[in-house]
Structure formats: structure tokens, C-alpha cells
Design a protein that fits this description.
It contains seven helices and no strands. By secondary structure, the protein is an all-alpha fold.
């Protein structure tokens, strides 16, 4: 909805409110459905940042991944991606994994976060190299970070006229 209503800055409050109502009624119906989910993403990111209870934090991280998986476009705002990438420096390996998974689900639009992902990968590798015994393979954030980097760098973006889930023949060249 914000994208449909750009340029309201500097207009009187009454005019801005009237224009906002027009934008709401003229906005595509999916934009209205997406807005609450995107607000939830922002709220969860803020809660994860301030929650110290490990179980509560893990529950919020699971919910964040679920929301980003359902609506990856909610993570495409630069401020949201920046907030997620800050979590890549968290001391908790699970939180770093969650952040990486969210960025991987966003895909190529998260290209701006590649430097933070690379830095987090090096951090995770250095922790594992220093003492590999306490970490189980499912707890190692380096795997999630590598997956996210592959998704961001190499996921094919479908052409606008393709059906969802179906790739064009150009994506699968015939060997000579």
C-alpha cells in the first residue's frame, strides 16, 4: 500500500487522509492482505532483538521464518533486510541460522545482505574450527548461511509470463 501511495509527504493532513482512503480503495486487494503480515514481520524482528529468554526467542524466530516463507515480499524492504542482517552477528548460532534462512527465502532481492552473510559464514566457520565438539550438524549456522548465499546469488527469477512452478525451456538448455 505504501508503494501505491508514494508522494504524500508535505501535503496537509486532511488532503493526505483523503488521498490515503483513495489509495486504499484503489490498491490491489493483495496489497491489503500483505500489509498485516509485513507488520508482523517487523514486530517479530523487534521482539527477537530484545528477547533474552531462549525458548521465547526461538518461538519468535520460528514464526518469523514461517511468515517470510509465506510472504517473502515482506522481507524485501531495505530496512527489514538490514534488521535481519543484524541478526547474523548474534552470538546465538540458532539466531544466525534463522536470519540466514529468512534472507535465503527472500532470494535475489536480498543481494544487499551478501557482505553480512559472508561475514557471518566466516564467524560460524571460525567457531566450528575452534571447538567442533559441542555443535551438532543441525545447529551449525554455516550450512544455512551457505544455502542463503546460493539462493540469493543463483535462484532463477521466473519471467513475468511464466506459470508459477514451471520453468521456461530457455532455463533448461538442450545439450549439444
Amino acid at each position: 500500500m505504501r508503494h501505491a501511495c508514494k508522494g504524500l509527504n508535505g501535503i496537509g493532513e486532511k488532503v493526505a487522509a483523503a488521498l490515503l482512503l483513495v489509495c486504499v480503495f484503489l490498491a490491489p486487494s493483495h496489497a491489503l492482505a500483505i500489509a498485516p503480515v509485513c507488520t508482523q514481520v517487523e514486530t517479530l524482528l523487534a521482539q527477537i532483538s530484545i528477547t533474552h529468554d531462549a525458548i521465547a526467542r526461538s518461538d519468535k524466530e520460528d514464526e518469523l521464518v514461517h511468515l517470510i516463507r509465506a510472504r517473502p515480499e515482506c522481507g524485501e524492504r531495505p530496512a527489514t533486510m538490514d534488521h535481519i542482517s543484524v541478526l547474523l552477528a548474534d552470538p546465538d548460532d540458532g539466531t544466525r541460522s534463522t536470519a540466514a534462512e529468512c534472507l535465503g527465502l527472500i532470494g535475489p532481492p536480498a543481494m544487499r545482505t551478501v557482505p553480512a552473510l559472508e561475514k557471518a559464514r566466516k564467524l560460524s566457520d571460525s567457531i566450528l574450527d575452534a571447538d567442533p565438539s559441542p555443535m551438532l550438524p543441525t545447529q551449525y549456522s554455516g550450512q544455512a548461511i551457505r544455502w542463503a548465499l546460493r539462493q540469493i546469488r543463483h535462484r532463477r527469477i521466473p519471467e513475468y509470463n511464466e506459470e508459477p512452478g514451471r520453468m521456461s525451456p530457455a532455463a533448461h538448455p538442450v545439450p549439444l
